[in-house]
Design brief:
The protein is α/β, with parallel strands linked by helices. Helices cover 33% and strands 18% of the residues. It has three domains: 19-74, DNA polymerase, domain 1; 77-213, Aldolase class I (TIM Barrel), CATH 3.20.20.70; 234-348, TIM Barrel (Alpha-Beta Barrel), CATH 3.20.20. The two termini are 37 Å apart. Residues 112-352 form the Radical SAM core domain.
Length: 365
């Protein structure tokens, strides 16, 4: 593999061990090592996943003398919210998080009439180097731990449950791994966090796997590993070009796995799971929005269990590219539909707070 396509994150100090990093058996083992009865692990998990509580001083069913010990060992603070920025009358909220080592990353909550979606980060930064994406241009700092990924969801779920988000109390219905990072480059921790989100309480949060979307630029071996998991999460492929010549430039990993290989892996996924694959396509003016590329994309996807999610390119500082003209966008849609390919145009939620697709940069100022 060429040096520019290695995906290993830089080695850094590991986050403190957290309950969400551990399987139910590992939690029992950890509690036993502390000299406590194994059932205390289930009590802790019931509070964290079931009641969205991280403060052991509030866990009155635990003996007072062990709360601090258990909290220090299994519920250490992982994430500190630096700030929340909102738009859409508060229905869209971007959160900047600081981890134990000062690393910054972001998540975005989007509240709709029929659902509440949280876009989470799987890495601090991203190593995929896509030139139209602010996150990719900042490079990769490190992978997030299972606990750090899961705690984004638990923390936001807590705010929702307590009515601290515009619109009143609510529950997260969907989680999308479309924040900072390439999820399948942090495969093990992402899959473990999906299990924490979807295992029944107190093993996890009890969400539906069908409400979770994992995106990727096309790491084919990792897609095949995901197929073997036999999970029901949705797979989203960030394609952005139907031809290798352009995709080599827009999505550098295409130099390793070409369009045909990526789509073949996507069809294996849909064939095994029965779930429709989402094909993400950022429309960039005069770059990838030509009618002939719409026809090529339509021919590639026709007859497959796929849906195209067109994304008007969101502006990023210093970018030479911009969103497509409205008439070109309409023609692109028309051409895809003529091939019988379902297509929607993504709602550009959060653009004015740099919280939309491709804009997350975790800037503190």
């Amino acid at each position: 593999m060429p040096a520019e396509l290695t995906f290993a994150a830089p080695r850094r100090a590991a986050p403190p061990r957290h309950l969400a990093d551990l399987s139910p058996q590992e939690r029992r083992d950890a509690v036993t090592e502390l000299g406590e009865k194994p059932f205390r692990a289930k009590q802790l998990a019931q509070h964290y996943f079931g009641r969205l509580e991280s403060d052991t001083s509030a866990m009155t069913d635990l003996p007072a003398e062990v709360r601090e010990t258990l909290g220090d060992a299994l519920l250490p603070p992982l994430l500190t919210p630096v700030r929340h920025v909102t738009c859409d009358d508060g229905m869209t909220r971007k959160t900047l998080w600081r981890a134990f080592d000062g690393v910054l990353f972001e998540s975005v909550l989007m509240r709709y009439a029929d659902r509440i979606t949280l876009c989470v980060s799987s890495q601090a930064g991203c190593g995929m180097n896509c030139p139209f994406c602010a996150t990719g241009q900042n490079g990769l700092t490190r992978n997030l731990s299972t606990g750090e990924i899961t705690d984004q969801v638990v923390s936001v779920a807590r705010d929702l449950a307590r009515g601290e988000v515009a619109g009143g109390p609510g529950r997260i219905s969907n989680v999308v791994f479309m924040g900072m990072g390439e999820p399948l480059a942090n495969y093990r921790r992402v899959l473990e966090s999906v299990r924490r989100m979807t295992d029944p309480v107190p093993g996890g949060l009890g969400m539906s796997q069908r409400g979770v979307t994992v995106s990727t630029v096309g790491l084919v071996p990792a897609i095949d590993k995901l197929i073997a998991e036999r999970m029901q999460v949705r797979l989203a492929i960030s394609l952005h070009a139907p031809d290798d010549e352009l995709r080599d430039e827009l999505v550098p990993v295409n130099n390793r796995w070409k369009v045909a290989e990526v789509l073949d892996a996507a069809w294996r996924y849909s064939g095994t799971t029965g779930r429709r694959v989402s094909v993400e396509y950022a429309l960039i003016r005069d770059i990838n929005d030509q009618a002939w590329r719409a026809d090529l994309l339509g021919r590639l996807l026709k007859g497959h269990l796929a849906h195209v999610n067109l994304i008007p390119l969101n502006p990023t500082p210093g970018s030479k590219w911009t969103a497509s003209r409205p008439e070109d966008e309409r023609e692109f849609v028309r051409r895809l539909e003529a091939h019988g390919v379902p297509v929607t145009i993504r709602d550009t939620r959060g653009q004015e707070i740099d919280g939309a697709c491709g804009q997350l940069a975790a800037a503190e100022d």
